[in-house]
Design goal:
The complex is a heterodimer of chains A (281) and B (538).
Chain A (H helix, E strand, L loop, with lengths): L5 H25 L11 H34 L15 H30 L7 E8 L2 E7 L28 E5 L7 E5 L3 E8 L4 E5 L4 E5 L5 E6 L4 E7 L11 E7 L1 H20 L2
Parallel strand pairs in A: 1-5, 4-10
Antiparallel strand pairs in A: 1-2, 2-3, 5-8, 6-7, 6-9, 9-10
Helix pairs in contact in A: 2-3
Chain B lengths: L15 H7 L3 H30 L9 H36 L7 H9 L1 H9 L19 H4 L2 H30 L12 H32 L13 H35 L6 H14 L16 H26 L8 H24 L1 H7 L3 H31 L5 H27 L16 H30 L38 H7 L6
The chains are: A alpha+beta (281), B mainly alpha (538).
């Protein structure tokens, strides 16, 4: 094997590795969107903290392993033709570096298990239910007019967790359906536990609001639901996250979080509108 | 080696094309596998460029939704089913018999059959572009009931994947019998090269997982064509069932796609560090561990269905990190106190280690179930799979090609062009796929044909598209190196790298019967022993 020029190419390779990894780190940190948005619900904030914990552990592992790699490439680059000491392995070292990932795994799993239980095993009753129907290629959001919630401070009762269809009577239903030109907007009140019940009659969709840091699939033949308590008013983007066919990419919607008073006003306006629409021709 | 009657090379003549079509020689079949899968790599790459062109700017209409869904579906299907999986069969075919000192594979004709099932399957899959409604467009995961509603291209996709499954299954059986029964005297199981071990575990995975895929595909075909309702809730079926059976194959399949790459890296690192692989047996057990655990994590693709036991699958997924971590540390231990030189194969192997690490770390985010709720089906997952299967597998493929090119074709690829190839690919790869992490965290779903400017996703997408074109640019020095090599005479010695394993004991390229003489085998590095003696101090 030719040895002339080897050190030059070794140096180039090392400098290159350095530059590439620095560039990688630079893209990550320089970007204004270097991380996940913080989320707007109680649940999202908990999940975001878990994300940050995972990111921290991942960053530590990344820096250490890439650091050792780069150190090796510099320190142990070929200097002469002598044969290095032939080390075949070491049980102690193998044991140590098996235990390290075990500890990391236990830490990550335990934390994620706790967060999972907190966001999914809610004892709290829900105050308002929004029925979401995904279909190719739109969303329908249905509220029950006789059960629009009472606000966070009003006494609430636990609802029967068994799914009973959108509303008790069809006349009670009030729906918002998106059209190709207009993305539908689903409105929920601030500071109240809101339950989303997801339903599909055609193919699988996925109900995804970015700032919930959460998505749940909308599966035909299966009634999925989840509960969130939003803590920030505003308008947020949502989108179908499971490939559902031709126009999957435009199956978008908006989610608006309003204070209870604004929510009630909005709902009254919607009712008036739909009544006048019903009375016309 | 016992004396056997060997047909003399060139003893009878046939037209070259007939020779290649009818060959049962594992080396020729290996080369056919390599050529065919690299062809599909190029096709899949062109489809990737179409995807990236469409996504470069917001609200783009370079292609319409209908075309886009076909393009990304066929990109993934080509890359996974027609490139990565078969190219390992190519390396395996060429190398396994040579590395264990065998004359050929155990069943040469079955070997030819498993290769010749592969090109027709590719043609059938791509024939979808010619039929009404176009090629498959339900993603490479073909989720049902969506897959039930699509056109004939979907049937062609099912048939093609089923044929490839047959090819893999009989190929896997062949590899296993070859490794169990055909090893040269002295080549005990724990002296087999690591690449063989990874092919062994891969073959076990294929043998166990592929039949499940076959059953899933059969059920889907019945659903589509004969009024079945296995996966259609409107007829009493279960939509989530498809995901269970599909991922029961496809998660082990991810290890099928990466383990041989790890094997190649584990062949290259010791040679260019002048040291043995650190923890040879630990590495084998880690490979088995990954293979075994691979069967218990499939539902981590389904956390957002709400229909699986999330803590269990999250836990099992985290566990995968342990054997994978052991491998990572073993690679570093191999470099430690070595004499490291930076020839092209080594550059790609080091690229593999540094990038696969990222693919491991970003996998942990999806194993943490509540974090996965946000990241699932976003570009973060796309980044993850490409850091594993491109930063991992594809870098290993090129490392392997630079490393074994002298053995297979008797010529060496130009070192300088190899360096340029690596540099462009490494930079292009990170430009293309690192921004996808950020897009995914920002909520960009995968598989969308276009996105709204409202989201401010354009800058990162543009960066990613630039990276994709840089990757395709990096193929120019590679192709130039190959063309230049073929213009030169076959001048490579048996062992141009001072390597360790048995394939370097024979001529480059090897004769039809592989070995005139097999050296004595006392360890997992017979050629090292030949050069330096079997001093136990080594």
């Amino acid at each position: 094997m030719p040895t002339t020029g080897m050190r030059g190419s070794a140096r180039r390779a090392i400098v290159f590795f350095f530059a590439a990894l620095l560039a990688l780190a630079a893209i990550g940190t320089a970007s204004a969107r270097a991380g996940q948005p913080g989320g707007i619900t109680d649940e999202a904030r908990e999940m975001h903290n878990l994300y940050l914990f995972t990111l921290l552990l991942g960053a530590v592992v990344f820096v250490i392993v890439e650091g050792v790699l780069i150190y090796c490439l510099i320190k142990f680059r070929k200097k002469d033709d002598s044969l290095p000491v032939q080390i075949h392995g070491s049980n102690i070292v193998e044991f140590i570096w098996t235990v390290i990932p075990v500890i990391i795994v236990i830490a990550l799993f335990s934390y994620s298990f706790v967060v999972l239980r907190n966001i999914e095993h809610k004892e709290n009753p829900v105050d308002l239910t929004v029925n979401v129907t995904g279909f190719q290629f739109q969303w329908q959001f249905t509220y029950c007019q006789n059960d629009l919630g009472k606000g966070a401070n009003a006494p609430t009762q636990a609802k029967d967790s068994k799914y009973q269809g959108p509303c008790t009577a069809e006349a009670d239903e009030f729906s918002i359906i998106g059209t190709a030109k207009d993305e539908p907007t689903v409105v929920i009140p601030l500071d109240e536990p809101v339950e989303f019940r997801l339903k599909s009659n055609d193919v699988i969709h996925s109900f995804y609001v970015r700032d919930f840091l959460y998505k749940l699939d909308v599966i035909p033949g299966r009634d999925n639901k989840f509960t969130v308590t939003a803590r920030e008013t505003g308008t947020y983007v949502g989108q179908c996250a499971e490939l559902c066919g031709l126009n999957h990419s435009i199956m978008r919607f908006k989610l608006e979080v309003k204070t209870r008073a604004d929510f009630d006003t909005w709902m009254a306006d919607q009712k008036a509108e739909s009544k006048s629409a019903a009375r016309a021709p | 080696m016992a004396s056997v009657a060997v047909p003399k090379q060139g003893g009878y003549s046939r037209p070259l094309i007939l020779e290649w079509i009818t060959t049962v020689d594992h080396k020729k079949l290996g080369i056919l596998y390599l050529y065919t899968s690299l062809f599909f790599f190029a096709v899949g790459g062109v489809l990737a460029l179409l995807v990236r062109t469409q996504l470069a700017v917001a609200d783009n209409n370079f292609v319409d939704n209908h075309a886009y869904n076909q393009i990304f579906t066929m990109h993934a299907s080509a890359m996974l089913f027609l490139f990565i999986i078969p190219i390992w069969a190519g390396f395996g075919n060429y190398l396994v018999p040579l590395q264990i000192g065998a004359l050929d594979m155990a069943f040469p004709r079955i070997n030819a059959l498993s290769f010749w099932l592969f090109p027709p399957a590719g043609i059938i899959m791509f024939a979808g572009f010619l039929v009404k409604d176009g090629a498959a467009q339900a993603g490479w995961t073909a989720y049902s009931p969506l897959a039930k509603t699509l056109g004939t291209g979907m049937d062609l996709w099912i048939i093609a994947v089923a044929i490839l499954g047959v090819s893999s299954t009989i190929g896997a059986a062949n590899f296993l019998v070859t490794m169990f029964r055909m090893r040269a005297p002295g080549m005990t199981m724990f002296r087999m090269p690591i690449f063989c071990w990874t092919m062994l575990v891969t073959s076990v995975l294929q043998l166990l997982a592929t039949p499940v895929l076959a059953s899933a595909l059969t059920m889907l075909f019945i659903d589509r064509n004969f009024g079945g309702n296995f996966f259609d809730p409107n007829g009493g079926g279960n939509a989530v069932l498809w995901q269970n059976v599909f991922w029961f194959y496809s998660h082990p399949a991810v290890y099928i796609m990466i383990l041989p790459g790890m094997g190649i890296v584990s062949e290259i690192l010791p040679v260019f560090s002048r040291k043995p692989l650190f923890g040879y047996k630990a590495f084998i057990f880690a490979t088995m561990g990954i293979g075994g655990l691979g069967f218990s994590v499939w539902a981590h693709h389904m956390f957002t269905t709400g229909a699986v036991l999330k803590p269990w699958f999250g836990f099992m997924t985290f566990l995968i990190g342990i054997p994978t971590g052991v491998k990572m540390f073993n690679w570093l231990g191999t470099l430690w106190r070595g004499q490291i030189s930076f020839e092209a194969p080594m550059l790609f192997a080091l690229g593999f280690i540094s990038m696969f690490l990222i693919g491991g770390i970003n996998g942990a985010f999806s194993a943490a179930v509540p974090v996965d709720f946000a990241l699932h089906d976003t570009y973060f997952v796309v980044a993850h799979i490409h850091y594993v299967l491109f930063g991992g597998s594809v870098f290993a493929v090129f490392g392997g090609l630079y490393y074994w090119f002298p053995k297979i074709w008797g010529r060496k690829l130009n070192e300088r062009l190899g360096q340029i190839h690596f540099a462009l690919m490494f930079i292009g790869f990170n430009l293309a796929f690192f921004p996808m992490h950020l897009l995914g965290l920002d909520g960009m779903p995968r598989r969308i044909a276009t996105y709204n400017d409202f989201n401010n996703w354009q800058a990162l997408n543009m960066l990613s598209t630039g990276g994709a074109f840089l990757i395709s640019l990096s193929m120019i020095p590679f192709i130039a190196a190959v063309v230049m090599a073929f213009m030169r005479p076959k001048d490579q010695p048996n062992d141009p790298w001072d390597a360790n394993t048995l394939e370097w004991a024979t001529t480059s390229p090897p004769p039809v019967h592989n070995f005139d003489e097999i050296p004595e085998i006392h360890s997992e590095r017979p050629l090292f022993d030949l050069r330096h003696g079997t001093n136990p101090g080594h």
